[in-house]
Amino acid sequence: VTLKKFPLDTLIPDGKRISWDSRKGFIIANATYREIGLLTCETTVNGHLYKSNYLTHRQTNTIQDVQISTPSPVKLLRGHTLTLNCTATTALNTRVQMTWKYPGKTKKRASIRQRIGQRTSVAIVFYSVLTIDKVQNRDKGLYTCNVKSGPSFKSVNTSVHIYDKAFIKVKHRKQHVLETTAGKRSYRLSAKVKAFPSPEVLWLKDGFPVTEKSPRYLVHGYALIIKDVTAEDAGDYTVLLAIKQYGVFQNLTTTLIVNVKPQIYEKAVSSFLDPTLYLLGSRQILTCTIYGIPQPTVTWYWRPCNHSHSKARYDFCSNNEESLILDPDSNLGNRIESITQRTAVIEGKNKTASTLVVADSRISGIYSCMASNKVGAVERNISFYVTDVPNGFHVNLEKMPTEGEDLKLSCTVNKFLYRDITWILLRTVKNRTMHHSISKQKMAITKENSITLNVTIKNVSLEDSGTYACRARNIYTGEEILQKKEVTIRDQEAPHLLRNLSDHTVAISSSTTLDCHATGVPEPQITWFKNNHKIQQEPGIILGPGSSTLFIERVTEEDEGVYHCKATNQKGSVESSAYLTVQGTSDKSNLELITLTCTCVAATLFWLLLTLFIRKLKRSSSEIKTDYLSIIMDPDEVPLDEQCERLPYDASKWEFARERLKLGKSLGRGAFGKVVQASAFGIKKSPTCRTVAVKMLKEGATASEYKALMTELKILTHIGHHLNVVNLLGACTKQGGPLMVIVEYCKYGNLSNYLKSKRDLFFLNKDAALHVEPKTEKMEPDLEQDKKPRLDSVTSSESFASSGFQEDKSLSDVEEEEDSDDFYKQPITMEDLISYSFQVARGMEFLSSRKCIHRDLAARNILLSENNVVKICDFGLARDIYKNPDYVRKGDTRLPLKWMAPESIFDKIYSTKSDVWSYGVLLWEIFSLGGSPYPGVQMDEDFCSRLKEGMRMRAPQYATPEIYQIMLDCWHKDPKE
């Protein structure tokens, strides 16, 4: 027998490693790779060759991996089938033994199937599948799959949990309210969930599925992931868990708060703009509109600019000393009127508007509003550059010069916005504009808020005409700005009168105007002469603009004479003259002299009484400053609103039942109020029905308008009763109806209109009046101008709450009954005028004793009642003066300039002393029978200046010297006098 190895080797037994056993065959001990291959065993018997082929290979014991395909732990409901698949991966030529170890093995509850799976070129996969039907609680525990190949051994195990029924348990991981911050890349909302079988998951935000809200919401397992968090992501999030086949449901709600870093909306806009300039002395409102969660706190800061720095800029201001916290009571920088905050929901966001009101802009600097919350802080810097130059850039030509005069140009710029200021002359040469510098920056004058560059060109000629421009560079944009002035040098021309004066005749006590208009280059100066004596402006002698007109008020015999005007300039002069003849005589008949003497005596007594009254009113302010009310009270000591709150209202004394008040026709109407005539039954405990006037609000009036009328009511109750004021009779304040203020009804109109209607029925004494036939035509109680409704409320910046009512001063604008007609037909005398004056003085004395300042004492605010009694109205109440020609605009307000004292016009000071001045003007109105004060005088800044310099009105037509002296005493230059 021979053992051969393909292809040509023969293995010969050596008795050691290779041996022959006739019963077994060839034995190869410790086979090596040499024996691996095709081996052939051959023998020859009886000439026949017998072969046996053997293919030998090497067996390994390499177990590469063992796994149980179902992840651990394995969860099952009781009664379900458990199937575990154990997979063993080995190297080629490896044999394995796979066994299971598990609870209940001794009872052989499991069936096990094994098979060889996929075979690859490098590995073999073996499977062992364990199956237990209808598992019970005893089947739970650790299941182990063991794999053995020769000396190699590996195992893997898994836990099996058996549950009696389906369940869901869910709770918060932390707390039920969570916070995050807007701007985070992502935020994860999750809950602790224990459930079997695995439930379906649905997330809701504020009751709606989140997948419908935004693609930024992602559901991952039981968690919700929010991408790019915004403030809109805040809300209530609910996770819904459901095992529908077993009817098991659970939910859990979590509140998410998204905190937002403060944002200042104006900051985004202001960063693209040049700094704003604020006019010197102006009132300014600075606002920061802020949004943030939680609601930010707002703090205002102030950093002043260094005014000594001639080239101060924004950067210099911002790097100045440390910022200082502002509050309304601080004395830092400009005077602060108020710092307020108001919160409102705008576009679905809770926004806060913080407002800083600067009462008087004086100092340049940086205002900063800082908003901060737990997330962070943001600051907005407001460049507060005060300018005394409108728009920050202004050029001025003093006057257009003539040949031989000096050309004076001035350029002023705000020093915080502009630099490199120069004057240039623009010349056009061959269609090109050439710039010729005529000044340098070093010649400029630097002030607190501005830089001024003045240029003077001496003795100009016609060749100096052209376009002059001031050039400055904007600090922020670098842009060069030009402000141009066209200068045309004119030839000198001698004066020329447009029309010569002509002789004319005027009646005594009338007014006249002389005109002297002249042309010339330069503009001629006009000088007036009377009888070769130069005329100066004085009371009754008024020179118009440029002295081109001469107005003589109430001509007297002394005004007769030769008047001539002279127009003069560098080229010469021209003049014209005329004779003014005064007709009439001032002689009186004996009866008139006697009457006038008696009147003078009465006027003297009246003057003495008024003098005592005026001295009593003009006591030192320290004696009367202690307890002023409302309008009346000193607002520097106690705010007006607070003063009005302190005033009591005694309902037991003033309340009147609405059902006893019958409203009638409307007497007036205003922005939010109206006045109606009414009949009051039993008012002031009277058994009769009395005609009254009722002030009330329109429908839809606001709380502030209600407060204004209530304030007026409280003031009237405090002032009390007096014959010569319009008195309060009662009020309806209780719930169940509108607020109504009941006052006296005066049917004869205001004194101004009444006196105008009596100009043809005025006599010096009663005897002369008795011989006059009464006129048959009926007089209207009001002139046409009073047929138009007027609103009684003050709108100047110094006023307090407006009454908001529009009313005719007579509280009626229709014809009265027959007794009214008879009253208007009656003549009036000097005695009546003195009586009216004295009654007003008594009424004002009473108001002064009640610490009341009127502020608008005039004949239009005096009403005429029965028995020739006059009553002061609108004392301390506000008026609407926009449609009244007696009120003149001054700045942003309209003021009754003709009746105002100089300290009220220039310093906004109102006191009893200023009421005395107004009383003097009222006397002038009375004794001119309703004339308009300062006739022929234009109400402008020039009037105010002349008034301050001492200009006063001449005596009115019917005033005696004593009465006129009272007027002059009221108009003393020094209020203390």
From TrEMBL:
GO CC terms, sorted: extracellular space; plasma membrane; receptor complex
UniProt feature, compositional bias: Basic and acidic residues: 775-791
Annotated catalytic residues: 856 (proton acceptor)
Compositional bias per record (Polar residues), positions renumbered to this chain: 793-805
Keyword Phosphoprotein in annotation: yes
Domain Ig-like: 64-161, 262-383, 390-488, 495-581
UniProt-recorded Gene Ontology molecular function terms: ATP binding; growth factor binding; metal ion binding; vascular endothelial growth factor receptor activity
Binding-site residues for ATP, renumbered to this chain: 668-675, 695, 860
Keyword Ribosomal protein found: no
Positions of the UniProt region annotated as Disordered: 775-817
Topology in membrane: Single-pass type I membrane protein
Residues reported to bind Mg(2+): 861, 874
A biological process from GO: cell differentiation
Keyword terms: Angiogenesis, ATP-binding, Cell membrane, Chemotaxis, Developmental protein, Differentiation, Disulfide bond, Glycoprotein, Immunoglobulin domain, Kinase, Magnesium, Membrane, Metal-binding, Nucleotide-binding, Phosphoprotein, Receptor, Repeat, Signal, Transferase, Transmembrane, Transmembrane helix, Tyrosine-protein kinase
Stated name of the protein: Vascular endothelial growth factor receptor 1
Organism from which the protein derives: Mustela putorius furo (European domestic ferret)
